[in-house]
Amino acid sequence: MCPDSLSVEFRLGRDGIAYEHWGRLIKLVKSGKVDGVECDGVPDVTICTVGEVQNCPGSVIILEAEDGPRITASREVIAQERVLAVVKGNVFRAKSFYNLSTVGGRYHGYLCHNEMKPKPNAEMRGGQAWSEHDLSKIRALYTYAADRGEYVDDLDAERPLSASFAGTTVYRHLNGQQCYWLDWHRRCAVDELSKVKWSKCYDRLIPYKDYLSLLAKSQVCVSPWGWGEVCIRDFEAIKAGCVVVKPNTSHITTYPDIYKNNERCVTCAIDFSDLPEVVSGIVDNWGSYRKIREDNQSYLRSAMSDGVIAKRISDFFARVQTG
């Protein structure tokens, strides 16, 4: 072991979702590709899920796999000094958003609820009073969503569909209760997309091979929010050469950061009321989006290379060590 290296140990228990989200982090660290971090000797830090915290002595870094930026079970332990960081795939760009009101425990639930007419009764929660110290521990490392999908290299190939969407429109909480605001948001997308000429819409999941084929034939991919604002679909669509249209998601930061200043996605209303107009504007000016689509693909290829991700992980651990 190098004298200046940080020794880490992974404890994710049997959390299969955590392994799916953070498998690349584990692989890169264990293969020795992350400078300054090793898995030899007595660990300086244990990298674990929140369920394993009580079984870990000393300092810990918690990995969360929850969709969206919200902090779930980690909120109960984040104030402990031995918790150095809570790592997620995406977080609020401005940490002050963690103190805003939510519906269903989600800020975008609050945004959707506010757009509904009439507004149903809702369990609206006030923001939690997070301390600046605790907020500073919340970090976005990378999103596993960017590893999904397949690149379509021929961006000049014919795309017979103006726009498409495939996804569920029925959401239920763990207790079986309907998630009314998310069902409404998704149904708005389906209803407005049905008004768009030469579009294709599935209000259900379809076989993945068929889904990738659908994207490759589409100029626009309509991407409503899900349990979180960030959707795997966003990255799959960019790789397929689509223009992604979704409600303004610039309040979220992730890596690769495709939402910053809405530079890589085209925005639409939360209720998708302007979707036909937005899609028409893209289709009518399709040629002008050629460079944007190419730049988006190039950005993802570079940002998600093993070397770049390993450097990002190395920098993260260096920042954690220095506080």
Features of the shown structure:
323 residues; 6-stranded parallel beta sheet; Rossmann fold; globular; 31% helix; single chain; alpha/beta; 5-stranded parallel beta sheet
List the helices and strands and how they pair.
Blueprint: E1 6-11, H1 16-30, E2 37-38, E3 45-48, E4 59-63, E5 83-88, E6 90-92, E7 102-103, H2 107-115, E8 124-125, H3 132-135, E9 138-140, E10 161-166, H4 180-193, E11 199-202, H5 208-216, E12 218-222, H6 232-239, E13 243-247, E14 252-254, E15 266-268, H7 275-284, H8 290-303, H9 306-322
How would you describe what is shown here?
The protein contains 9 helices and 15 strands. The chain has helices at 16-30, 107-115, 132-135, 180-193, 208-216, 232-239, 275-284, 290-303, 306-322, and strands spanning 6-11, 37-38, 45-48, 59-63, 83-88, 90-92, 102-103, 124-125, 138-140, 161-166, 199-202, 218-222, 243-247, 252-254, 266-268. The mean pLDDT is 93. The protein is globular, with a radius of gyration of 21 Å. The protein is 31% helix and 18% strand. The protein has 2 domains: 6-144 and 304-322; 146-301, Rossmann fold, CATH 3.40.50.2000. The longest helix has 17 residues, at 306-322. The chain starts with 5 loop residues before the first strand and ends with a helix. The strands form 4 sheets. The protein has a 6-stranded parallel beta sheet, covered by helices on one side. It has 323 residues and is an alpha/beta fold.
Gist?
It is built from 9 helices and 15 strands.
